[in-house]
Each structure stands twice: as structure tokens, then as C-alpha cells.
Amino acid sequence: MMRRPILLVVLLAAVLLSACTNTPGRSDQVVVTGSTTILPIAEVSAEMFHRLRPDVRVLVSGVGSSAGIESVSTGSSDIGTSSRDLKSEEGGLGLVDTPIAYDAIAVIVNQSNPVESLTKAQIKAIFQGKIRDWSQVGGRGGSIQLVNRDEASGTREAFSKIVMDKEPFDPTAAVLPGTGQVRAVVAQSPGAVGYISYGFVNRSVKAIAVEGVRPSEKTVFSGAYPIQRTLHFFTKGPAAGLARSYIDFVLSDSVQKTIVGEAGFLPVSERSR
Amino acid sequence: MDKRVANTIALAVLWVAAGITVFVLFAIIGYVFVNGIGVISPRFIFTWPHGVAAVGGIWPTIVSSVYVTTLAMLIVTPIAILAAVYLAEYAVQGRLVSTIRFAADSLASVPSIVMGLFGLALFVEAAGFGFSMLSAALALSFLMLPIVMRTTEEAIRAVPRFIRWGSYGLGATKWQTVSKIVLPAATPRIVTGIVLAAGRAVGETAVVIYTMGQAINLPRTPLDSGRPMTVHLYLLAMEGINLRAAYGTALLLMVMILFFNLGARWISRRYRKV
Amino acid sequence: MAEHTGAPEPADELRLVTRATYLRELTLKNLFLLCAFVAVLGVLLIFVFVGVRGWPAFTEIGVREFLFGRVWSPSTEQFGILPLIWGTILVMAGALALGTPLAVATAVFLSEIATPRVRSIVRPAVELLAGIPSVIYGFFGLVMLRPIIAEWSGGLGFGAFTAWIILAIMIVPTIATLSQDALESVPDGIREASYAMGATTWQTIYKVLLPAAKIGIFDAVILGMGRAIGETMAVLMVVGNAPVFPKDVFSPLSTLTTQIVMDMPYAVGLHRTALFGMAIILFVVSMSLVAVVRLLSRLGEER
User: Fold this and answer.
1) Which of B178-182, B202-206, C151-155 is most confident?
2) ipTM higher than the 0.85 cut
3) Which CATH superfamily includes the segment(s) C67-302?
């Protein structure tokens, strides 16, 4: 019975291999962590990818763009997603960028708020806490209720860079860790103002015009709408192996022409810059 | 004020207080039930969440919750029972026992976020288990240890003394008495305590976030990560996009915990005569 | 009954068990002691692992700057946790103020007034309340309570007031069950003596029973305090998470526990150390409360 021991060894090896920890570089999974904004795209495409490649598991978690960048640079994940660009101090990490979509950030107010348009300077002053009453910007009187995102949020980071010029937010603002919550709170409180990804704007809130330009697919495409950003997939070095396959899939039409649009973002291929 | 009038008013206030407490319980359970019942379906329970708004089901989270709780129970039960045996049968009042009790009480009152960071530092990073069922179960074990220790000790102490004397009188050793007579007699109460502790473990959030990670996954080995129902509910609620699924998750979570609590109660009632 | 014919050696007479059995029993006893010691081991491990990570917060940031600094702004290297300490105290104090009377009243009701039938409904209800996970309380506060308070106060509904209500409900079971135990352990003779003198139920409760159960109730309140200080998820979902001194009870604020959860996902370096430092503070405070309770119990016994 010479075959029996070999079978046993093979079985044992299989059992041992299957008990390996969740480390990236494992040959049957891709670990993707990062932006909560990109999370929906990553998760749905992971699911679709799994149907194409049932042997591969793509594990997606949304922990924030900064955490995503950190974990891909330390090797804890294969792909770090980020809704903000790399900071200057992150330049030396050896990360390679693959843009997968574009996004606009809408400034939202309550439906009952008569304000229709604000300048970038006004928005900045509001979020700095310098303008505290709606009557100062052409609205009905009433105190401005600021709703901010948490510091791990790529949306906040992008807003901070584009609108706030990196100056501090009003620290007394409520800090909410989720797009839906910001939207729900603004939808319900007449004096509230917040910012969310344009893709998540729905009828419950009003997206105001910035510098006279309302956010819409047309104005985002044309570049007229001022508050917009790139959504990134970062890899340590050029993407290879399973991570490469997954990224290629995300860049393909089956994701770009469907999910990206459904999530309210702009596909990479249609942008002419 | 006439003392009888004062008495009537005071008693009315006390009735109202108790009524408020009961009302709040039913309000919370009722609110979750009413909003969540429409979401529950076999599809919700047994399919995976997918899509931009996590629609679908919550099956992997249910498995993760049950998996980690079971693992934690397996780890903590032998240690806690033997520890309680020591305290109830062998220990002499003194500095050592005092220290042990102080430590157990301290563990029981550790803020769950501290336990979570502890689990992160020790099990996830230092011991290298990574984000896994194992790390989370070990952290949960420390949380549940004092609970099971206390209830088991009370269960052992509740066994009447004459049973032990009979055993010793027959020439049995201490361990024989404990293992063959006392523990079996105390088993219903011990099981009640374990079930209650399991209910507590299922409801933990802060501890498991930092030891199990957040990725949705169906755990197979203890080194796999996953997302339990509590974390799923937290993320759904905070994201705010799919409140329907949040209510459904909350309801299932509550049902699971009520099952543990009422189960424990049923066990203790059924075996009360013992 | 046969009698011993020979005179056995004294050593044989004294030995009741074989040496093997004796050793086995001793080994088992020590094994059990080891298991009991796991609790102590746990506490020590927490001290070591959280302590090592967090201790530099006190040395590098400086005790005064860390504990008494009024600005928490990690992005500008400012790590003053005074607003968070204030937030923790504010939230805890309000919750205790709201929850203790309700809990003690419920306990008194259960112990003195409820018929066994009513008790069999109310006490399980209280215990079930204790079992509801904090994330569900937080969820309830977020989707049900916050909008109501927002309408009522004109603000966003995040703030100390909302936290007080949710946290008060959460600590009621802790305080109520322990207070009920304390009240029930007051000997019946004292009650009967009071009634015999013509006191009404309320007079008995107020003048005799509550003072008699004082220590037990105080213990219960302290444990409730510990729970309020250490509660994380429920408070996180309703408090607004602004690391500042709130201008009123309807403005967003932050506590030690909630700030740790908010910042942990992205904190690195000194920031992360500061968070572990906050964890040390929380751990020390909760252990101190346990010590206080144990001390009080011992004092109570000696009386």
C-alpha cells in the first residue's frame, strides 16, 4: 500500500495550507482595503469577479482612505483604495496609482433651505465656523448646523484640500462617520449643511450650486463644477497577478459602464482631460 | 402632609417608575421588531449581502457571530469552571483569594473598547493571529471569564453540604466528590451562567471590531476573519444607506440574544427543584 | 465485627489515602488555582500590553499637556484630552442623575411593593434590558431618539442630552438589580418593627430600608457609574463626536471612549499612542471604582 502514506501527506498539506492566515499574496485571495466611498464599487465588482473566477476571494473592507494607503504600503493588503490623492509624505512609499473613477463632492442643505448657490469662499467660511447664520449668506435667519465627516474619510480629505485649502474645520461641528448619515441628518434638520459624494445625492436633500455651477453629470464631465476628485486603486509597485486581474476587471466596461455609474461616479474612460 | 397621602403618592410614583422601565424595554424591542419584521425572510437570513447598498442577506455575519461566540465559549468554559471550583471548594479566605476576586471584578468592568485595544495589541499583533475568529474569541474569553466564574461559583455553593459529607463519608477524595457529585448537581445553574455569558458575547461590538476586522467573510478556520452581526449593524447604521437591512440585522440579533436569555431562564426554572 | 489482632504502625493509621492519590489531588488543586489565576493574569496582561503602548503618551506629550490640554487636534500635534475627560464626566453625570432615581425606584418597587406575580414580569424585564447589546441601544438612539430631540431643540439632535437618555436606560438594569438585592437582604424584622410602630410603607422605605441598604445601593450606583464611563457604542452613535467643550447639552461633544473609536482607524504614531494612553486612563478608572466598591463592602461587613 505505497499510495496510502502519500495520500495522507497530501491531505495533511491541504489541511495545513487551508489554515493559513489572511495574508495578502495568498494565491487565492485579494485583500482590498480603504475608502468607504469606493467601497460599494469594490464590493460589487468583487462579487462579480468571484462569479468569473470562483476560485478567487476578494476581501473588501472600508476603513478609510488613509488606512487603505497605510495597509497597502505595509503589505497588510494587496490593493489600497483611496478617494484622495497621496499626501506629499506618502510619495516615497512606492505606490502605483490606477484611477478607476472620478467623483464630484456636492454641498448639501435641507430641502426647506432657500439658499441656492454659494461661492467657494463662503462655503469655506461656513465650514470654518466663521459664518454662523444663514442670513449672512442670503438665506432665512437661523444658526448654521455644521455636519462634518470623520477624519478617516477620503471625502473629507478631498473637501479639505479643494474647498478648505487645508485649513482647519470648525471643531464644534458634528462628526459623522458615514455618507448616508450625513445625508439623513441634513435631510431632517432645516439648518444643517454637509458634503457628500455627488453620487449619493438624492431627493431628500438639495445640492447647491458652487460658484454658480450646479453639480450634474454634464458639469462634472466638462470640469465646470469645481469640487471634484479622482478615485484611486493603489498597489505597491505595478499591480501583478490576481490583483492585476481584479483591477483590469474594474477598469473593464462591465464595471465602468454599470456599477460606477450606478454609484454616481464617472467612469475613467469617458473623461477627456 | 398626611402620612397616608404621602404614602399613596409615593407608591404611585414607584409604580410609574417600574412601569417606565418595563415600557422602555417593550418600546425598544417593539420598535426593532416592527421595523425589522418586514425585512426578515429566508432570503435575508441565508444569502450574502451584495451591491452598493448591502442589499440581500446577512448570512456570513450570522455565521461569524455564532462561530466566534461558540469558540469563545469553548475556550472560557473549562477555565472558568475549574477556577470556580478552586474558589468554592479549595480556597481559603486570604490575600490570594482576595486578589483573584479583585482581578475578576476588574475584568468584568473593563470598558469594552479597552478590551478591544488589548486584543488588538496582544492577539492580533503580538501573537500574530491577525484579525481572526481566534483573536476575537480570546479577547471575548477574558470578558466572559468573570461572568462564568461567578455564576459557576454560586452554582457550586448552592449544592447542599450534606451531599458532600455523604460523599466524603464514603471515602471519596475531594476531586471525586467535586467531579462526580457536586458538579453534576450544579450543572443546570452552570449551564445557565454559560448561556447568559454567551448572550453577552454575541452582543459585543467594540471588542470584536479590533480583533476580527470588518471584512464580510464566511469563516472556516479559526484564523479566518469575518464580520459579526453587531459590527454589521453598526456599519449599516452609521453608513445610513440601507436602514432596512439595519433593522433586519437588529431584529435577528435581538432574537438571538432573547433566545439566549430566555433559554437560560428556562433551564434554571426547569431544574429548580434540584 | 472482626477486631484488629495486630497493632498497626502509627504511620499507617494516619495515612488515609495512598501517596499517589495525595499527589494527584494536590496537582489538581494547583491546576484549579492556576485557572483561577487566569483572571489575575488577564488584568496583568492588559496592564502590560495597553500600558506599554500607551505609556509614552504621558512621557512624550507630557502629563500636563495630555491630561489638562484643552485642544484635541491630532492633525496639528495637539493632544489635550481635557475636553474628552469633560465629555466623559458630563455624559456620565447626567446618565447617573437620570438613571439612578429610576433604577432605585424600580428596585424598591420590586423589593417592597410588587406582588410575586408582578415581580415575575418586571424583574425579567429589567434583566432583559441588561442583555440588549449596546449597539442596538445606539441604533435606537440614532434613528428614533435623535430626530425627536433635533426637532425639539432645533439642533442636530446629537449631544449630551441624547446621550444621557440612552445611557440612563442602559445603566438602570445594573443599578436596579443590585439595589434590589441590597434591599432584599435587609432583615424582615426591621420592616416588621417599622410597620408595628404604625409607619406606612413609604415611611418604612424612606426612613428605614433605604438607609439600611445604603451601602449596597451605593455599590450599585458606583458600578452603574463604571458602566456609564466605559460605554462606547451607544454613546458613539448619538453624541456627535466633536472633541470640544460643548456650548450646551444639545451640541455635539466627545468622550474618551468615543474618541478612541473614531480615531483608531487612521491614527498612527503619537496619535495612536495617545489613544492607548486614554485606554490606560479608562482602565485605571474602572479598576479604581471596583476597588472602591470592594472597600465599601468590606467596611459594611465589619459594621
Assistant:
1) B202-206
2) yes
3) MetI-like (1.10.3720.10)
Compute the distance between CA of residue A160 and CA of residue A163 in angstroms, rounded to an integer: 6
Best A76, A127, A143, A145 residue to mutate vs chain C (most C CBs within 10 Å)? A145
Domain ranges of chain C: 67-302
Q: How confident is the model at residue A12 (pLDDT cuts 50, 70, 90)?
A: low
Q: Is B204 on the interface with C (CB under 8 A)?
A: yes
Q: For B137-164, what is the mean pLDDT? A: 90
A101-A102-A103 Cα angle (round to 5): 125
| Whole-number Cα distances in Å, A266 to A39, A272, B50 | 15, 12, 21
Looking at the fold, whether B162 and B264 belong to one and the same domain comes out as yes
Surface of A (153-192) touching B: CB under 8 A:
176-184
Closest by CA to C110, choosing from C127, C93, C90, is: C127
- Phi first, then psi, for residue C89 (nearest 5°) are -65, -45
Query: Which residue, C191, C192, C237, C280, is CA-closest to C91?
Result: C237
Judgement on whether residues B32 and B49 belong to the same structural domain of the protein: no
Considering only A264-268, B126-130, B180-184, C230-234, which range has the smallest mean pLDDT? A264-268
What per-residue confidence (pLDDT) applies to A5? 61
Q: What is the pLDDT of residue B115?
A: 94
Q: What kind of fold does domain A103-222 have according to CATH?
A: D-Maltodextrin-Binding Protein; domain 2 (3.40.190)
Answer yes or no: do B148 and B25 share one domain.
Answer: no
Burial of residue B12 (CB within 10 Å: 0-12, 13-18, 19+) is: exposed
CB A46 within 8 A of CB A72: no
| Measured distance CA(C107)–CA(C95) in Å, rounded | 17
Superfamily of domain A7-102+230-271: Periplasmic binding protein-like II (3.40.190.10)
Q: Show me where the domains of chain A are located.
A: 7-102+230-271, 103-222
Identify the residue whose cell numbers are 474647498: A163
CB-CB contact of C39 with B147 (8 Å):
no
AA letter at A151: E
CA angle B20, B25, B30 (to 5 degrees): 120
- Chain A residues 28-87 with a CB less than 8 Å from chain B: 31, 33, 36, 40-41, 43-44, 47, 57, 59-63
C43 chain-B contacts, CB cut-off 8 A:
103, 106-107
- Taking CB atoms and an 8 Å cutoff, what residues of chain B touch A153? none
Q: Do residue B175 and residue B204 come from a single domain?
A: yes
Within 50-69 of A, beta carbons closer than 8 Å to C belong to 63-64, 66-67
Confidence of residue C25 (pLDDT cuts 50, 70, 90): confident
Instruction: Domain of residue B32: give its range.
Output: 3-36
Chains that touch C (3 or more CB pairs under 8 A): A, B
Same domain, B128 and B98: yes
E strand or H helix at A60, and its extent?
A: strand A57-62
B151 close to B88: Cβ distance less than 8 angstroms = no
Q: Which residue has the cell 504511620?
A: C11
Task: Check A172 against C266: CB less than 8 A apart.
Answer: no
Query: What CATH number has the domain bearing residue B197?
Result: 1.10.3720.10
Helix axes A179-188, B229-239, angle to 10 degrees: 50
Q: What does the pLDDT look like over B75-117, one tens digit per residue?
A: 999 999 999 999 988 888 888 888 999 999 999 889 999 999 9
Whether A176 sits inside 8 A of B217 (CB atoms) is no
Of C73, C156, C266, nearest to A152 by CB-CB distance is C266
The residues that bridge with A209 in the sheet, in sequence order, are: A117
Same domain, B127 and B28: no
Q: How many domains does chain B have?
A: 2
Write the single-letter amino acid at A51. Answer: R
In this prediction, residue C281 carries a pLDDT of 94
Question: Could you tell me which residues are beta bridge partners of residue A133?
Answer: A143
Average pLDDT over residues B33-52: 84
